[in-house]
């Protein structure tokens, strides 16, 4: 892929939370990382063996593999501020 | 709600199915192991052995019971865990390769994680479910799930999810062990016990007088009878061993066979046979009275019979004992080499009383001796109160009697109230009690031994002097005189004196004999001379007679001759010559 941001979203089936999370993620990336990102969605119900590798325990989990450091954001990504901080797009200002 | 459901289950199934843990002793306390297909909570403070408990549950299941298991670690990495349990002889690597166990390390790093919005732990469920399905696991251990609380903020979600997790485990039909850190007001910091209603085991690590004792207690076990006491347990190179020693009944077998003590004179005092097999013997005495020597002699005798003996030394090292016993002519080294004698030496302060008991228990189970020596039990008092030691010994004696093992304790008595109590406390338990006492007199210390009690034997009531020689131990009759009891050199002196008297007496007797002999000889010679006197008298008399006869004859002849001469007859002359020749 070779994009600046390689993102993986782990979900388990098409649950409400997963759908919300994917929507939130797409919206956010379009806004802040247009053209610099790739999103891979992994459904653990289909590939449970992948859960161990990325240390997934919560669903949904967004994993930022690149750039380093690896970060994980769990939840439906409804708090945009936190997601941006989590992806190191925006540094923490307050809180 | 949950309670009524459980009661229903119990009624419908009768006794609940159980899964053997393979942890030595635990299966006895729980009467068959943990509830099958249900989660069990194991809680305890840091370092109380929770992780070991759970990994042993998994490994034993995989190795001994053919039940594959999943170990999900929240604390230690798989590599760390492997290294940690390698010392117990568990080769997790190989077991993993053989698909008997599966290790999964769940790494939760707060710094890497950002929470935003709604989430659940479906990922963990999937992971666990996948791990279980991949090897067909029957057992699961989660160590320790509370780490989730450290990594995540939303406790409401976590609590709901943990509740769901237990349901999930039940639905998977796996027997699970979940560990939890002790803390807060409940058994665990996060109150996990409210989710696990089937079985809760508490591990404890208590330090009394700077000595730690590990204990285990089954707090609850729904639908099953279980031991409710606190049971001491030991963690050593073979994992956990729990000691369920308080036997409930006094109905063990007894034997009428007896074992010689190794001291012939003592056996004689004990009704000629020695101690009963499976009995307990206490040897007590003040310092330096030879308690260890008696114990070693007993051990030596057992070894010479080819029986196995286990010697627990709490004071001297095995080498020291071997060296010292060589001085009284016992070669323990030989038995050690042949394997009939085994030493188990440990400092009393090494760990608590209970742990000692567990260790003793374990050693006995392992080597199955017929004779056990504990030398001395007094040293155990340094690490426990008198009543503690007594209860420990009660349990030990109980166990040994059930196993038909003869045990000899040695105990030091001091002129000290506490220790006298100990003696008494123990003495009511033991079957035979030998007491060695110092007898001080004439500027000497000597040892006197007597049998305080010996159940079921016509034992001697005598005080014997107990002597230690370079050929072994012996009991000598105490010399009773008008001056009292004599021991040691006083006894020797008195015996010598008596011997001297005997010699003098013997001398006197022989002198008298000789006198008599002489008299007899004199008389005999007198008789001889009288006889010869008589013979000569007789001869004299005979001579007179012969002469008389000769005279008569000659006279007769002369008369005849004269007559012949007068008549001139030749034949008469010849007749007279013949008569003379006769």
Describe the protein's architecture and organization:
The complex is a heterodimer of chains A (95) and B (582). Chain A has three helices and four strands; from the N terminus they run βαβαββα. Chain A is of the alpha+beta class. Chain A has a four-stranded mixed beta sheet with strand order 2-1-3-4, with helices on one face. Chain B folds into three domains: 241 residues, 3-Layer(aba) Sandwich (Rossmann fold); 220 residues, P-loop containing nucleotide triphosphate hydrolases (Rossmann fold); 81 residues. In chain B, 43% of the residues lie in helices and 24% in strands. Chain B has a nine-stranded mixed beta sheet with strand order 5-4-7-8-3-9-10-11-12, sandwiched between helices. Chain B has a nine-stranded mixed beta sheet with strand order 17-16-18-19-15-20-21-22-23, with helices on both faces. In chain B, helix 6 packs parallel to helix 8, helix 13 packs parallel to helix 14 and helix 14 packs parallel to helix 15. Chain B is rod-shaped. Chain B starts with a helix and ends with a helix. At the A-B interface, helix 1, strand 4 and helix 3 of A face strand 6 and helix 6 of B.
